[in-house]
Amino acid sequence: MSWRLLGREPEVELLTGILDDTAAGAGGWHVLTGPPGIGKSRLLQAVFELAAQRDLAVATREAFRLDQAAPLVTLAGALRDCTTETSAFAWLTEHEPERSDPLGTLQRLRTSLEQATRERPLLIVIDDAQWTDELSALAIRELIPALASAPVRWLFAHRPPSTEDRDSPGHQLMRWLLRDGTPPIRLNPLADPDIAELSADVVGAAVDNTVVALAASCLGNPLRTEQLLRALVATRQLVVARGVGSVVGDDLPSSFVDSVRELLDSLSEPAAWLLRSASVFGRPFGVDEVARLSGHPLTRLYPLVGEAMTDFLVEDTLGGLAFAHDLVRQAVYSMLPRPMREQLHREVAAITSDAGRPALETAEHQLKSGPSGAGAAVRMVRSMAREIARVAPGAAADIMLRALPAVDAGDPDRPVLIADTVGLLASAARLEEARRLGGEALGAGLDPDTEAVLLLGLAEACKHGGLNTMTVEYTDTALRNPRIPAGVQARLHAVRTHALCYLGDLAGADDSGVRAEALGRPAGEYGAVVFGLAGRSLVAYTEGRLDDSLAYARSATELADQEGGAAAHQHPRIWLGGALTALDRFDEAEQVIRTGRRESDRSGSAWADPLWHYFQTALLYARGRLEEAAVEAQSGLAVAEQHEANALAMPLLGMLLRIAVRRGELSRAQDHLDQVRRLAGDGVTAVPEDVLWAEAVLLVATGAPKAAFDLLRDLYAGLADRPALFAADPAAAAELVRLARDTGHLGEASIVVAAARRLAERNPGSHSAAGAAEHAAGVHHGDLARVERAVAEFRLANRPLALAAALEDAASLGGDGYQEALSIVTGCGAERVRARIEAVLRARGAVAPEPSAPPAPCLPQLSPAERRVAIEVGRGGTNSEVAEILFISKHTVDAHLRNIFAKLGVRRRAELAALVARECGPTT
């Protein structure tokens, strides 16, 4: 496209301001949208020029439809072509690591981006972002919030979705970016005066009303206008006389394709054939590739390429060739007769395969080469199903879905193909499609082994999505056949263990855990053994057998360390950290979680991130560090939402709800409860300790104790068998007693006392359990001595929130605990409790003593955790480096920085560094 940028002054002004902001050190993202040919790419060219004037590094890529077949190619390709040479991306230029190790490449990209922005601000531009590949889309969803504090500006240009491609990874990414109502930058059709100027530019002379009127038929679309006028000039239907262009003749093009056809017909036949052949690639192509496809020797091809570049081709950033616009390519492609098109796709499939290009790209061409090609595509995808499922399950599933119609309904292989497709759909979290297609496969009849694998895939996907009832249905259906391989049975039982635990069938869950180990060890299916042991640890924790919970988690961890592979990828230290926290062994738990997180990061196990955040949140809550716990839980929730891990979102939301109530943020707590209800409405289940208890805490805080009791009626009844709530939150025992007594249910209060006593008896080494038992009994009977014994136990357990609760109850019974309780809850940030104690003291005529003021810290607006992060960032550390130094996750650093920026009113890391230097003194 050679036309000038016309009629885009408002957009240029807006983008200029954005680039100025970026040059000053601010980051962010923007979406540019408009129909094909409206001028998005031309506007981006202007942006590149403006960025160069501001000394911004620019990384850009025009995505192509076949990007979806190459994991991480969109993002890695953009960074590889960064305009400013930087060592941060040197590893990307040496070879194409995204092909050989896409997940490993993804892990390194964040660090490289952080390093690059130390040198200068970075602008990342993705044109035709609707074609972004699946893994790049996932990476961008993680990187945008992760790099929000860095001078990284993202600019995405895309066309509105059609019914056929609205669920592509790129369009899903665009919807995610715009989810909070942020308006995109919309490019509207050009006004008539701008079209008139454009017409004169294309013709090379002034034009009269005949030209302007015909150009107006293109409805302000500059690309369509240009193609129409070039076709008219080429066919001599637009002539210039006395310096003015006019339209002559009546046989004028009636559509965009007709315009392109007429322009194509103006070329020599060999050049036109070159373009028709090249349109099949669907991506930039090399001269050698098109020479092989068109049958011309290279020496003869170069003049043809020169002829085609006048109106059709441009040089790609990597030195290859590409159509000037994909609409033009599509128009040329549409002119190919079907037999010729299929033959060309067959040849291109061979070319891409020989060149070692991504398997899904080859399969895409095979699929378009006729019925025999569809079979070849299916075989290729099936042969690499496990690897593809890790990096591009959605793209692979789409190919299989399109190939299935070519397989006859009576073909004996069809059920197996459907089973493979179901597995890919499940891996892509497309559960409704997977279930619908899975029903067809099961109805058509499968051999037992294939049916079991299909049901296992559906069960694992449903468990990931929090659909535990459905998970059990699928595993039970598969396990009815005792002849399926032992290893598959072990994996089914392992998944079933966790699902049944969430559904409350603890005996059944433990039995499945036993079977997972008994079947898995002889079969060498150690991943199932580890996951089954982790499930048994969860069951034991729920039943209050805390030492057993620890033992199972230790066994799982030892086996994972010994066997590695699939066993290690289950990351059993997640449950080991949780068991240690329940036993008040906080330092050990912190070390285990820290070690496990590092292993998880190295292996690229993104699925585990929300779980690490959850157990770290539980540890911080137990230690009374409420603000840090809230940041940790919020970070985990963001990751869970990115990965659609609804099962893990529920407990994180429950923690956030409870923390918000403790901090007196009842409106925020209600927002979290609304999220819980939306997920529950979609069929996502959670254990009562995670969600019902949190909702009850909010109800009590808002003056609705009767509603809280009614909500927890079944929980009271089941406490004898599952006292897990007391292990997670020892102060909850006394709170349940108080709730029952206040609503006139003394029998339920006695149930709580008995359950807490039994928990303490089963765990004689647990100070928390002993404290919970004494606290509950003391509140129920009004026994000051027992509450004071609870104070002593909670003090030994180092649980400040539980200690403060017991001190407050002791004081209400005549003891002396209000002042210490007030000091504790103030330090923890439990504002609601602080206000309550201060109100009691005022009512008694007592005045809470002003605590001796410690030396004012620098940046007093920040919490201690935020201050530590701010100081490290002030020293020049990237988020990843700060995470390593402070032994916290990168997601937590990201969240802390968002809070820091908001509290200090800064938008750039440079501003924060200057503020730290001024307020805190030298940091190096």
From TrEMBL:
UniProt cross-references to InterPro entries, sorted A to Z: AAA_16 (IPR041664), P-loop_NTPase (IPR027417), Sig_transdc_resp-reg_C-effctor (IPR016032), TPR-like_helical_dom_sf (IPR011990), Tscrpt_reg_LuxR_C (IPR000792), WH-like_DNA-bd_sf (IPR036388)
Protein name from the UniProt record: LuxR family transcriptional regulator
UniProt entry keywords in alphabetical sequence: ATP-binding, Nucleotide-binding
GO molecular function, one term: adenylate cyclase activity
SUPFAM superfamilies: C-terminal effector domain of the bipartite response regulators, P-loop containing nucleoside triphosphate hydrolases, TPR-like
Lineage: Bacteria, Bacillati, Actinomycetota, Actinomycetes, Micromonosporales
GO cellular component: cytoplasm
Domain of life from the UniProt record: Bacteria
Signal peptide: none
Residues in HTH luxR-type domain copies: 855-920
One BP annotation, GO: regulation of DNA-templated transcription
ATP-binding listed as a keyword: yes
